[in-house]
Structures are given as C-alpha cells and as structure tokens.
Design brief:
With 145 residues, the protein is mostly helical. The chain contains five helices and three strands. A hairpin with a 5-residue loop joins strand 2 and strand 3. It is elongated, with a radius of gyration of 19 Å. The structure holds zinc ion.
C-alpha cells in the first residue's frame, strides 16, 4: 500500500509487478489442470518467433500425441495477469480441439483446392470464435491463476 495514500485515508493500489517466467509457467500449469490437460506435455519455446508476428501466442500440437509447443509474443512481460491468463487459456483450449481439427483436415482430398481453401478458412474462423468464447467463459467462472 502507498504511504501517501494511507496518510490521506485512501487506498491507492500499487501497479502489479511485471510477470515472470515462473508466473507464466504457473498459469500454464493451473489452466492445464482446470481444462483436464494434465497429461499433456506443453513446453514454452521462449526463444522461437511466432509464425504470425501479430499474434499474441501460438500453440503447436506436436506429432507425438499429448505434446505441444507454446510460443508467446515477445511482449509477454508487459502483459497483466488477466491478459496472460486469457491468452494462455485460449491457446490451451485449442489443444482440446485437436482431434476435431484432424477430422476436418482428413476431408481435404474430397475438396477442390479452391473449395478447400474456403472451407478450411471458414473452419479456422469458427474455431477461433468458439475458443475465444470458451476462454472468456472459463476465465469469468474460474478467475485468474
Ligand atoms: Zn486461437
């Protein structure tokens, strides 16, 4: 608490300290547990650039089942705890849709290249909408880690 704020009879919260690597790892572990992903091995590729530079984060399921790599924007140390939770939660929910995505991908040979591009883009968009809504819902009910 701020001394000046106390002397004036007001509570003036101090800004939260920046997040650390340990904070990020705790957030990942906490949401893995909440989402039932304890069996997943999720490593953070701290030094790898994002495939899409304007993304906040990316999760990449690996060829070995239940293994994934998470990449974060280099701006992650500036995130507040709420934003870090929502961003990481969003990426981990993508892991829950892995098999659904594989099923969609299996249909590619049935499409012409143009039709596949349109269909896949639509599926990606709808998955993002679903994942975003679920992340907001889970965060709203369960709170930050
Ligand atoms: Zn997403």
């Amino acid at each position: 608490m701020d001394d000046v704020g106390e002397r004036l009879g007001r509570v003036i919260p101090l800004p939260a300290p920046p997040l650390s690597v340990l904070d990020i790892e705790a957030i990942i572990t906490g949401w893995k547990h909440r989402l039932g992903l304890e069996g997943w091995e999720i490593s953070v590729a701290w030094d790898e650039p994002l495939e899409q530079e304007d993304s906040l984060a990316e999760v990449v399921p690996l060829s070995v089942y239940d293994y994934a790599k998470l990449r974060l924007s280099p701006a992650w140390p500036t995130w507040d705890r709420r934003w870090a939770n929502l961003t990481i939660l969003h990426e981990l929910i993508h892991l829950l849709t892995r098999d659904y995505g594989c099923a969609i991908g299996a249909a590619e040979p049935m499409f012409s290249p143009t039709a596949w591009t349109i269909f896949e883009s639509r599926c990606d968009h709808e998955e993002e909408q679903l994942v975003d809504r679920l992340a907001t819902l889970f965060f709203g009910h369960l709170g930050a880690i």
